[in-house]
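Retry 2 of 3 after timeout on previous attempt. Resubmitting C-alpha cells to design endpoint.
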C-alpha cells in the first residue's frame, strides 16, 4: 500500500525519495480521520504518480512498476518501452493536463494563432495506449463521456 511505502523503513524511506515520502505523508495528514487507501490514491496528484516512474522512485520500489502494464509491447532496438518511456509519456499527459487546469490554450499550434487539434489528439492517444497496456477496456470505461474526436473534428471544421 502507498501509505506503508512512506513509513519509517518503508521502501520510500531513503534520501533519494524523500520528497515522494513527504508527499504521501502530507496527503495522509490532510485526510486525517477520513483516511482510506482509496482517498489517499485520489489525493495524490498526477505528478506524484508520474514520478513513481522516475529513476530513483522506480529503483526504490523494486523496479516492478511496469507490471501494471501487462500488455506493454516488447522493447526493440529502436524503441525501449522501459520506465523512462512511461515516465516521458506521463510527462506529456501531465503537461497537457496542467495547460487545461491553468486555462491555457490547448488547440493551437504553439506560439501561433492557428487552431489545431493535433496536440489534443496525440495526448488522448497516449492515454488510450496506456489504458490498452493495462488491459483496460477504454470504450467501456469512457462510455458516454468520450467526446474527444467529435469536439476535435468540430474544431478542425471551424
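Retry 2 succeeded. Sequence:
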Amino acid at each position: 500500500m502507498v501509505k506503508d511505502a512512506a513509513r519509517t523503513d518503508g521502501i520510500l524511506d531513503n534520501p533519494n525519495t524523500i520528497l515522494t515520502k513527504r508527499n504521501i505523508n502530507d496527503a495522509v495528514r490532510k485526510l486525517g480521520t477520513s483516511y482510506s487507501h482509496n482517498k489517499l490514491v485520489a489525493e495524490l496528484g498526477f505528478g506524484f504518480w508520474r514520478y513513481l516512474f522516475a529513476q530513483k522512485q522506480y529503483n526504490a520500489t523494486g523496479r516492478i512498476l511496469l507490471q501494471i502494464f501487462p500488455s506493454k509491447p516488447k522493447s526493440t532496438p529502436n524503441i525501449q518501452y522501459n520506465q523512462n518511456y512511461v515516465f516521458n509519456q506521463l510527462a506529456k499527459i501531465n503537461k497537457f493536463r496542467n495547460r487545461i487546469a491553468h486555462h491555457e490554450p490547448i488547440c493551437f499550434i504553439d506560439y501561433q494563432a492557428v487552431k489545431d487539434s493535433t496536440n489534443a489528439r496525440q495526448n488522448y492517444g497516449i492515454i488510450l495506449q496506456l489504458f490498452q497496456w493495462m488491459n483496460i477496456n477504454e470504450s467501456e470505461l469512457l462510455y458516454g463521456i468520450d467526446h474527444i474526436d467529435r469536439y476535435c473534428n468540430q474544431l478542425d471544421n471551424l
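Attempt log closed. The two ends are 48 Å apart (CA to CA).
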